[in-house]
């Protein structure tokens, strides 16, 4: 497998000018077939095996174009833990939740200690909390595309961020977020713990409750 990877690297280097579509085809028809051969016999869900598979996967897709990766849902977005807020940047706090059978999400945009913008939406009642969180992250990006400088997006939903870092997520909203944020270096995603009591995050949470109190859904998400 390592030898095959080495040959693909040599074959796909810039001086050869091989199209990313061809690289994708090589991966799907050669590398992936070799990885999956006899899968039921040898695969065990151990940390070591999963780590090795992910390394092979990441390596192979270095040479596939961004558009192709997005179409296959394979982009992985990194995120970080943070317990202190940088006041000299745009800080966007978003949260999603379900309250009394209603689902919604809220967004608050800060610069220094002042609120610059605030939004909240109620979703259709069939939507899950995960979808509300994901839509909140997506809208946090969409509502800040016109801003200059670094933008930090905070959420207390670890599962939402983990989906962005997964190459196998099937959620359409997650795929859309990846398309929006990939290669936009001004964005950084952060997970912030609920229990540390960040006032800005609590403000976003209060907007979620406001959203769920609306009489009508103003944003419908397909399940």
Automatic annotation (TrEMBL):
Domain RNase H type-1 residues, every copy: 86-213
One protein family per Pfam: RNase_H
Enzyme class: hydrolase
Superkingdom to which the source organism belongs: Eukaryota
Keyword Hydrolase part of the UniProt annotation: yes
Catalytic activity line of the entry: Endonucleolytic cleavage to 5'-phosphomonoester
Enzyme Commission (EC) number: 3.1.26.4
Database matches in Gene3D superfamilies: Ribonuclease H-like superfamily/Ribonuclease H (3.30.420.10)
GO MF annotation list: metal ion binding; nucleic acid binding; RNA-DNA hybrid ribonuclease activity
GO biological process, one term: DNA replication, removal of RNA primer
UniProt family annotation: Belongs to the RNase H family.
Protein name: ribonuclease H
